[in-house]
Amino acid sequence: MALSLTRSAVTTSLSRRRPAAALKAKKASGAGTARKFYGPDRVKWLGPYSEGAVPSYLNGEFPGDYGWDTSGLSADPSTFARYRTLEVIHARWALLGALGIVTPELLAKNGTNFQEPVWFKAGAQIFQQGGLNYLGNPALVHAQSIIATLAVQVLLMGLVEGYRVNGGPAGEGLDPLYPGEAFDPLGLADDPDTFAELKVKELKNGRLAMFSCFGFFVQAIVTGKGPIENLDEHLADPGTNNAFSFATKFTPQ
């Protein structure tokens, strides 16, 4: 009986310690992630050669800070805060824009019926007879007036921006960049360490999306085609369909 009681006590003690140990390990892992992206020991833009190349005002306090500001654009704190806001907002729009640019072409390629899947040509359908049907379905959005469409967009964006800048509908003081609450229904930012890492991932993917959108714009101007069609043509004949072959068309004769 004594031996059974002893075993029971040891088992109970270990079971109580395991959650605490797991929590401690999780915190240590989160701290390691934070050190990787924040603070003086974070990864920097020149890697091991960054010593002396990082300005003092870039101290790793904010997400996405790799110590690169060769032009000194962020030396002034108020300017730095403004640029951070602009970058995050533009990054989010670029993420949505890149997805919206490639998705219609991908769906059309796989059998979805679109009147015009190429992103820079789709909007012109509103001037055609019958107007523009969202996703080719008049039951979703049937836009016939560019004036009405513009008015609705200005109204909706004005409301959203007003909500963001004022910190909520009644000025509750929510963070204008990371308001949380209704904007985080899955609770992804509940854990501070996870939230800090997600901020970095958002910026890294957003920066890539901004470059992607710029590439889509250039492709549209140079080739007059969508990015998926350009990609298919390049994969079919890489030696002929590439940036260098198009660049030669703009050289002086």
Please characterize this protein's 3D structure.
With 253 residues, this protein is mainly alpha-helical. It is built from seven helices and two strands, in the order αααββαααα. The protein has a two-stranded antiparallel ribbon. It is globular, with a radius of gyration of 26 Å. It starts with a helix and ends in a 6-residue tail after the last helix.
Q: Approximately what portion of the residues adopt beta-strand conformation?
A: under 5%
Shape type: globular
* SSE run: HHHEEHHHH
Q: Main β-sheet: number of strands, strand sense, barrel status? A: 2 strands, antiparallel
Q: Can you list the strand order of the major beta sheet? A: 1-2
Structural class: mainly alpha
**What integer is the average pLDDT?**
82
Rounded radius of gyration (Å): 26 Å
Distance between the termini: 100 Å
Count of helix runs: 7
Share of helix, binned: 55-70%
Count of strand segments: 2
Poorly predicted ranges? 1-29
Give a nutshell description of this structure:
This protein is mainly α. It has seven helices and two strands.
Entry keywords:
253 residues; mainly alpha; two-stranded antiparallel ribbon; 7 helices; 2 strands; 56% helix; 2% strand; globular; disordered N terminus
List the helices and strands and how they pair.
Elements: H1 2-37, H2 77-109, H3 119-122, E1 132-133, E2 142-143, H4 146-166, H5 192-223, H6 227-236, H7 243-247
Antiparallel strand pairs: 1-2
Helix pairs in contact: 1-5, 2-5
